[in-house]
Design brief:
- The protein is an alpha/beta fold and about 130 residues long.
- It has a single domain, classed as RutC-like (60s Ribosomal Protein L30, Chain: A), CATH 3.30.1330.40.
- About 15% of the residues lie in helices and about 25% in strands.
- The longest helix has 18 residues.
């Protein structure tokens, strides 16, 4: 089993923006790591205290496939002073034979600042 990290930021605390961002993040994590619903043990989603318009887990149910059966839980991120704002983070627990160093963690928008030590894939939405 491996954990796959991901994060994305939003500009506004709205249901639409949060769900669109969370869906984009989920799709990137799944695509870059070739994850199928049956590979996923569970998903944890955290949000910073400044975004609360919707549970971002709801975005998983918008993705085509058998994602309805994947256990997912939302929680608040620890509000550390000076930390990144308006951020949605995910931890996807998957059954995989992929080596730890080959897991592709995904950081989009302002969240790229969270882990500059990790090799970042180019975000296709950014020109």
């Amino acid at each position: 089993m491996r954990g796959i990290r991901g994060a994305i930021t939003v500009k506004e605390n709205t249901e639409k923006e949060m769900l669109d961002a969370a869906e984009r993040l989920f799709k990137e994590v799944f695509s870059q790591n070739k994850v199928q619903p049956e590979d996923v043990c569970s998903i944890f989603v955290s949000v910073t205290e400044d975004i609360n318009a919707v549970f971002p887990a709801k975005a998983l149910r918008r993705i085509e496939g058998n994602w309805d059966y994947v256990p997912i839980m939302c929680m608040n991120e620890v509000p550390v002073p000076g930390s990144l704002k308006k951020c949605i983070r995910v931890m996807v627990h998957v059954n995989t034979e992929t080596a730890q160093q080959d897991i592709q963690h995904v950081y989009l928008e302002e969240a790229v600042k969270l882990r500059p030590d990790l090799k970042q894939e180019k975000d296709p939405a950014v020109n």
